[in-house]
Design a protein that fits this description.
This protein has nine helices and eleven strands. With 331 residues, it is of the alpha+beta class. It is elongated and about 75 Å long. The strands form two sheets. The protein has a six-stranded mixed beta sheet, sandwiched between helices. It has a five-stranded antiparallel beta sheet with strand order 2-1-5-4-3. It has helices at 2-11, 17-28, 58-73, 128-158, 169-186, 201-207, 209-226, 250-266, 295-311; strands at residues 36-42, 48-54, 78-80, 97-104, 107-115, 190-197, 232-237, 240-246, 281-288, 316-319, 328-330. It is 44% helix and 21% strand. The termini are far apart.
Length: 331
C-alpha cells in the first residue's frame, strides 16, 4: 500500500504529461514482464506518439505505437507471443509484448506497453487479480495524464494566435524577455523583426475577409518554413507579424528580413481559391546589444523601423540605427 500511495503522489506531482508518463514507465517494471516499456498517447495531428519510453530502438518504437493505436481504439489488455509473426500489427521485432489501457471509465487516455527480449511460446497472460489491481492503479495515472494534457493544451491555446497558430503577443513578449535576459548574461545580441503586409486592405476589399484570413494563414506558414527552430514567429494582430531572432546581430536581422521579403514576394497566395495573389511586406528590424533593453523598448524600436520602411514606399527592410542609406534596403 505505501508503494501505491507513493505512486499516486508521484503521478500527480507534475502538470507535464511527459513527466507523468516517465513515472509510469519507471514503475512499470515492478508490475509487468519485459525489459522495454513505453507509454503511448494519441498524437495531436493523428496517429500515436511515444510520450515516454525505456530501451526502445526505432523498430520497437514503431511497434509500440502500432500496439498503442489498437489499445486506444479498444481499451482492453492486449498481448502477443511474437510481434514478428503477429498479423494484427505491422511486423516488428521477434519479442513477446503485453499492453494495458490507461483508462478513465471507458475512455483510454494512453496505453502502457511492455516488450520482452525474446518471443514466447504463448501470448503473455496477466492473472485476473493482477489485472484488476493494475486497472485501479493505472486509472490514477490516466486521470493525472488527462489533467496534465488538458492543462498543457489550455496553456498552449492561451499563447497561440487563433487564426494562424503562431505565437500570440503574450507568447512573443515572454519569449523576448527571456531571450533578452539570456543575451544579457551571455553578452550576445538578440534581434527582433516586425513585418507588415503592404496594401493588405486591398485583398479584403477585392476578395473578402475570409480569403484575406486565408492569405494570412499562408503567410504564417511561410514564416514557419523560413525561420530557425530557435526563432519565435508571432502574429501581432491584423496583418502584422514579428520574429524573435536569438544570437543574431543587426546585419543578420537585416539579412533575415530580406530573406523573408523575398520568400513572400515569390509566393503565389490563394491558389486553392482559384486566385493568384502576390503580396509584399515591409520589415522593421531592431537589435539589442549590451547594455540590455526591455522587451517593450525593442518592440517599439522595431516598430519605428517598420514605419520608416512603409514611409519609404514599402517592400523594403528598415533597420534601427545607421548602416544602409537612410537605414533602409529595398530589393
Amino acid at each position: 500500500m505505501p508503494a501505491v500511495v507513493e505512486f499516486v503522489r508521484a503521478v500527480n506531482a507534475s502538470a507535464d504529461p511527459g513527466r507523468v508518463a516517465e513515472v509510469v514507465v519507471s514503475r512499470a517494471g515492478s508490475w509487468l514482464p519485459g525489459t522495454r516499456r513505453a507509454v503511448v498517447m494519441p498524437a495531436p495531428c493523428g496517429g500515436t506518439v511515444v510520450l515516454a519510453g525505456s530501451g526502445l530502438g526505432p523498430r520497437e518504437e514503431a511497434s509500440v505505437r502500432a500496439i498503442g493505436a489498437r489499445v486506444l481504439r479498444r481499451p482492453r489488455v492486449w498481448s502477443s507471443a511474437d510481434l514478428g509473426r503477429d498479423g494484427r500489427v505491422p511486423p516488428g521485432p521477434a519479442v513477446a509484448a503485453v499492453a494495458l489501457p490507461l483508462a478513465c471509465g471507458m475512455r483510454a487516455v494512453a496505453a502502457l506497453i511492455a516488450l520482452d527480449s525474446r518471443p514466447a511460446v504463448a501470448a503473455p497472460r496477466l492473472p485476473a487479480t493482477l489485472r484488476r489491481a493494475l486497472g485501479r492503479v493505472l486509472e490514477t495515472a490516466a486521470i493525472a495524464l488527462d489533467n496534465a494534457r488538458r492543462t498543457q493544451r489550455a496553456e498552449r491555446l492561451a499563447r497561440t494566435d487563433d487564426l494562424t497558430g503562431l505565437c500570440n503577443v503574450r507568447a512573443l513578449t515572454d519569449t523576448l524577455r527571456r531571450e533578452l535576459a539570456r543575451a544579457s548574461r551571455a553578452g550576445r545580441p538578440v534581434s527582433l523583426i516586425v513585418l507588415d503586409v503592404d496594401g493588405f486592405k486591398g485583398i479584403n476589399d477585392s476578395h473578402g475577409h475570409l480569403r484575406g484570413n486565408r492569405a494570412l494563414v499562408e503567410m504564417a506558414g511561410l514564416l514557419r518554413e523560413s525561420t530557425r527552430q530557435a526563432d519565435c514567429a508571432a502574429r501581432l494582430g491584423g496583418d502584422e507579424f514579428a520574429v524573435v531572432l536569438p544570437d543574431t546581430g543587426r546585419d543578420g536581422a537585416v539579412v533575415a528580413g530580406d530573406r523573408l521579403r523575398a520568400r513572400i514576394a515569390h509566393h503565389v497566395f490563394l491558389r486553392r481559391e482559384g486566385l493568384e495573389v502576390r503580396l509584399a511586406v515591409s520589415v522593421g528590424a531592431a537589435t539589442a546589444n549590451v547594455p540590455p533593453v526591455t522587451a517593450g523598448a525593442l518592440l517599439e524600436r522595431a516598430d519605428k523601423a517598420l514605419y520608416r520602411a512603409k514611409a519609404g514606399g514599402g517592400d523594403r527592410t528598415a533597420c534601427d540605427g545607421p548602416g544602409f542609406p537612410a537605414g533602409e534596403r529595398a530589393t
